[in-house]
Amino acid sequence: MFPIVNPLGGAPIFLSLTHYYSTVQRKLLSRNIAVNSFLLLIGSYFIGTHILAFFGISLPVVQVGGGLVVMAAGWNMLKQKEGDETRGNVQQSVDPRDLSSRAFYPLTLPLTVGPGSISVAITLGANEPHHGSSILFSIIGAIIGSLLIAVSVYFCYAFADRLAVILGPTAMAVIMRLTSFLLVCIGVQIFWNGFSALLGSLPTIIR
User: What span, in angstroms and rounded, lies between the C-alpha atoms of 99 and 136?
Assistant: First the structure.
């Protein structure tokens, strides 16, 4: 699950989307994102399949919708003007409730815990052992694994500004553009995975 969530790769994207915030506000956002990520992973693992079944939503549909959102976010970052990126030292007065709201969308979902992570968590939960003592070890393992991922998300995001200082503005600008393009590509891949599965199901539906 860790390479799919990829907190290290998401740190430059997080910094680009929060360059107007102060260090304290960015750390508060990081903490909220870490908590949200933990809850999303645990929720997807234990009850994800039941929620999707209740609403009649399949995993490919989740991938298509999530892929479109990720593509849109990456495209907006890719079109961001250089002047907007150089104003990272400008700080805004932000209401804590706005921080909490933005911490979930888009910073937690879909940028940190996206459709790919949710799909893997749901798949792992659907294939967990349901008999004997194995289910207890499975639950403990899922909680510990999700907690470790959440902690790594917090540290990578909370100290992303230090990485920017070490690399310098030119290197960070290059990284931002590259990660924005990669985010678009990731969105296209997630979309294509879901779309291909939907296309594959058409003969079954027609029959």
Answer: 36
Q: How far apart are the first and last CA of the chain?
A: 37
Residue 144 has pLDDT above 80, yes or no: yes
Alpha-carbon span 107 to 90, nearest angstrom: 20
Cβ pair 91, 99 in contact under 8 A: no
Rounded Cα distance, 107 and 154, in Å? 12
DSSP characters for 78-128?
HT--HHHHTTTT------HHHHHHHIIIIIITTTTS-HHHHHHHHHHHHTS
pTM assigned to the model: 0.72
Structural domain containing residue 20 = 2-206
Q: Please, what's the largest Cα pairwise distance for the chain?
A: 60
Peptide bond between residue 110 and the one before it cis (omega within 30 degrees of 0): yes
Specify the number of domains making up the chain: 1
- Other CB atoms within a 10 A radius of the CB of residue 181 amount to 14
pLDDT tens string 51-67? 888 888 887 887 788 78
